[in-house]
Amino acid sequence: MINVIRSLVFYAGYFLAMLVCGVLFLPPAPFLPLRSRYRLLNLYNHFIIAWFRLACGVRHDFRGHERLPEGPCVILANHQSEWETVYLQLLHPPVCTVLKRELLNIPIFGWGLRLLHPIALDRSKPARAMKQVLTQGKTRLDEGLSVLIFPEGTRVAPGNRRRYNKSGTVIACRAGVPVVPVAHNAGERWPGRHWVKRPGRLSLEVGEPIETAGRTSEEVMAEVEAWIEARLAEISEVPRPATAAPPITDKPLA
């Protein structure tokens, strides 16, 4: 029962913050330079991360932030919940997120996303979506933005595993930028398919940048997946499976 009460309190603050930010931040945001726009709109993200920790009794164990490179990079992270979509916007800003186009239609939240130059995909057209990721991803990197991709293609519950899509490493290899792997167990605290949050330790680790010069996207992807899975085996309370499910073919990216 205490977790239900905590979750209700959390969502009261969650939606109130969204409303306040929509009223105060969205109107001036389009008139700001892109980097200033990120700083303003990401105040919402900072609040949600802090409020989640306070309201739901979650302890943070974050490691490896000092490993982030100075310039733009491709961030590849496992995907378990909504938490990482909020937090990873703060990891190496400005960051362009690859996401499903439907999110842009959510009132207030989606309007803010549109202002951050995401790569919004129509998942019903996988071939077109893949081409869009590759072309727009390199463009964003050339503009000085980092690119965030969840290579599993969708949320994967703790204790499950799915093969990684290599589109992120293809972009990085073409642009000549490093890949930064990120592993976390956020789905154990913020379940992806249930609204009740769970107290406990939320661990996130940033890996060493993986250089892409002179390497194939397959080689880099294999290294990324091996690193993330090794870290997940250490930080997860739910045991990791030995093998991955087949990759998603009709939904290349979430």
Automatic annotation (TrEMBL):
Enzyme class per UniProt: transferase
**Name of the featured protein:** 1-acyl-sn-glycerol-3-phosphate acyltransferase
Origin species, per record, is Halomonas fontilapidosi
Q: What's a single GO BP term from this record?
A: phosphatidic acid biosynthetic process
* Positions of the Phospholipid/glycerol acyltransferase domain: 73-187
Bilayer-crossing residues are 7-26
Q: Which SMART domains is this protein grouped with?
A: PlsC
What are the entry keywords? Acyltransferase, Membrane, Transferase, Transmembrane, Transmembrane helix
The EC designation for this entry is: 2.3.1.51
| Pathway the protein acts in | Lipid metabolism
Keyword Iron-sulfur set for record: no
InterPro entries in alphabetical order: Plipid/glycerol_acylTrfase (IPR002123)
Any one Gene Ontology MF annotation carried by this entry is:
1-acylglycerol-3-phosphate O-acyltransferase activity
Supply the Pfam families for this chain.
Acyltransferase (PF01553)
